[in-house]
Amino acid sequence: MDDDQEAELRNPFPSPPSHYANYTSRNLKLLALLRERTASSTDPPPNQRDVLSDQPDVPEWPLTELEPPRVDWIREEGHYNIFGDTWFLKETIPSLAEMGGHQLYPEDLAVDRRPALLSILRSMLLTYSSMLKSMLVAPSINATEPPAWQREVEWITVLAQNIMAAANDLRPVQARASLELMMQRQVQMRRQETKAIHEKCDTLEVQLAELRKATQDIQQAEYAKAQGAESEVKIEDVLRWAEEI
Known about the structure:
Elements lengths: L2 H7 L15 H13 L10 H4 L19 H7 L1 E4 L2 E4 L25 H23 L11 H22 L1 H74 L1
Antiparallel strand pairs: 1-2
Helix pairs in contact: 5-6
């Protein structure tokens, strides 16, 4: 793969593969005819030009390149390649050993890793102290011999890789704990909002009861006033009638 093709694969918006131009109606018909004529053949696949000798414009490149990818093969291998990258069917975090590193802690998540990680941390601190001492030593006269601090740096790199890989393995646990905490906060917030709504409803019910009582008092006062006015009118009418008589 040349530099231009590799750069194109790394492009965030890569162009279609160059062989997309081969998917013409003519080539697809030739592929179907090739499948039909070689379906009963159990020997190694024959030359397509010999099988399609009666057809014009048979391409030089294999027509089998036009076939879609075998899904069963992808499932069997567990991964597929696209645009130069490998994608796994099941999203998993590869372990440090699977990536080619020197793993110093147990791979099984069910095993307690804290003792191993504490040992790695102590080893890192001890190696760092040893590296500082090595850097204070005068350089060796023999130029071919690597300095002592270089071995310490390499070992610190291995230890740091183990700590980072162990932390990455705990990311699903951290995400699950963060999700549980977020859901608990949402439940607590909804309970508080529900409590505030109930308290507001109780306050409104008290205010409505007070308004209802005040309305009833006003109605009773107006009714009593109306009854008194009617009584006064009737007495005046009786006295006027008596005077006329």
